[in-house]
Design goal:
The structure is a homodimer. Chain A is elongated and about 60 Å long. The first copy, chain A, has 2 domains: 12-155, 2-Layer Sandwich (Endonuclease, Chain A); 163-222, Winged helix-like DNA-binding domain superfamily/Winged helix DNA-binding domain (Arc Repressor Mutant, subunit A). By secondary structure, the first copy, chain A, is α+β, with helices and mostly antiparallel strands. Chain A is built from 10 helices and 9 strands. Helices cover 51% and strands 19% of the residues of chain A. In chain A, strands 1-2-8-7-6-3-4-5-9 form a 9-stranded mixed beta sheet, sandwiched between helices. Chain A starts with a strand and ends with a helix. The A-B interface holds A 177-182, 210-222, 226 and B 177-182, 210-222, 226. The structure holds a DNA duplex.
Chain lengths: 226, 226
DNA sequence: CCGCGATCGGCAACAACCTGCCAAGGCCGT
DNA sequence: ACGGCCTTGGCAGGTTGTTGCCGATCGCGG
């Protein structure tokens, strides 16, 4: 089931694995030795599913924690869900993770010590596939892109403050939108002005990375927010 | 886990079961003796999941088939998916099921011989719950409502003809909508006029029972069409 | 009390979307 | 060929959603 593709001999290869257990099995020793881990994800499920999480946590918990640089970039939607937001703060506090938020479209990626890149494939249809890349030039390129995204991203605290009030009413707004209620009526039921309601919808769409309401509906459903 | 609520003694009760296996276990003998089965559903998963289907099919396949009246009402969205549409025709042909389509919002329901009503609860959060009702007045009331819906519904053939051309391009339209593409651009990429593209979107929304594009996005995602 | 910053919500201009109308063109049975 | 039937797509007029602007209001620290 594991498909390894040899490349021109420079010591680097690209391996494709299917499923998270397989990924953990193949990479946990890399995590154990790492001093610099960078991670991009659009929600908390991806690298935090019980299997992955327990595997990697096990590899990390024996470590001091101060000596490993842990950077994580998420999309704004993780802050829409109170549970996710809390979990985020927790992993920041227990381990010394630096967490930032970016509005850009990013694929899910892990970088270990600027030597290994793990890129996640499309999650549709059963088990997800992951590419483990050690080819130096590729890893270098991916790393530079990650660093750029990292620099342009804002810290979680700054972003969190900006959407604090949004998070409170987001569930109600999403509910109204999901029932096909017109802005006029929705604003009334929430006791808001139409302008303010639309402000909330716009912020919501930005957080979901959607450029149309249809797209926002799809994303919201994907994330289980409706 | 099974919660049975006794009511005023008239021979009728309401039982609530959780999960489809449990439902099949409790009702398969009813299906075996039935001569009139009516069924309402919004997609094919609900009563056709492997467990339910195999259980009920087993109960029915020993029967002649001509002597049992089988009526099914679906929402239009089942015709959007080619696989679903084909499956629909198959159960119509192999057994003598009459199938109709209604644009109304209907909850998922089964009626057996106008004596027993099975109503499905909200599918959110784990296993679904089902209410099995034998209380005569309730069953009578539900039956009358079902009959009304049945009469106002159109036959699957009539409806199928109406959305035949829609089904062909629905995936592409959904893809464009899901990527947040503007109508103008989407129409161009499909080689359609904007008016026609919007006609397709409107038909799609009607089929999904959505009154806003956000809602359509949610529904489309729920049904796995995007 | 005043000033400051932030949010609210009305207004307006605009963009996007929705739909009835209708002429143009394709398809089919006669 | 002809007439009926359907789909198409332009147009127009309507509704809904999007956004900048700006004064009103609130809370807070000085």
């Amino acid at each position: 089931m594991t498909n390894t593709v040899g490349t021109i001999r420079t010591g680097g290869t690209v391996a494709v694995v299917r499923g998270e257990e397989e990924l953990v099995r193949r990479t946990s020793h890399q995590f154990a030795a790492a001093t610099d881990i960078a991670c991009a994800a659009i929600d908390l499920r991806t690298w935090s599913a019980a299997r992955t999480e327990s595997g990697i946590r096990a590899a990390l918990c024996g470590r001091d924690g101060a000596e490993v640089r842990l950077r994580k970039v998420y999309r704004p939607n993780v802050l829409l869900d109170p549970v996710s937001a809390a979990h985020l703060r927790e992993i920041r506090d227990t381990r010394g993770a630096q967490i930032r938020i970016t509005p850009d479209e990013i694929n899910e990626t892990i970088l270990i010590d600027r030597r290994i890149a793990i890129l996640a494939g499309d999650p549709r249809l059963g088990e997800r596939s992951f590419s483990i890349v050690t080819q130096p030039e590729v890893v270098q390129g991916v790393t530079s892109l990650f660093d750029a995204a990292w620099r342009s991203a804002t810290t979680v605290d700054a972003y969190d403050a900006r959407i604090a009030e949004l998070r409170d009413i987001a569930p109600q707004v999403l509910d109204l939108l999901g029932r096909g209620v017109k802005d006029e009526a929705a604003a009334r039921t929430l006791g808001l002005g139409v302008r303010t309601y639309r402000r909330r919808v716009a912020e919501l769409m930005e957080a979901l990375g959607a450029s149309s309401r249809f797209q926002a509906g799809v994303r919201a459903r994907e994330l289980g927010l409706v």
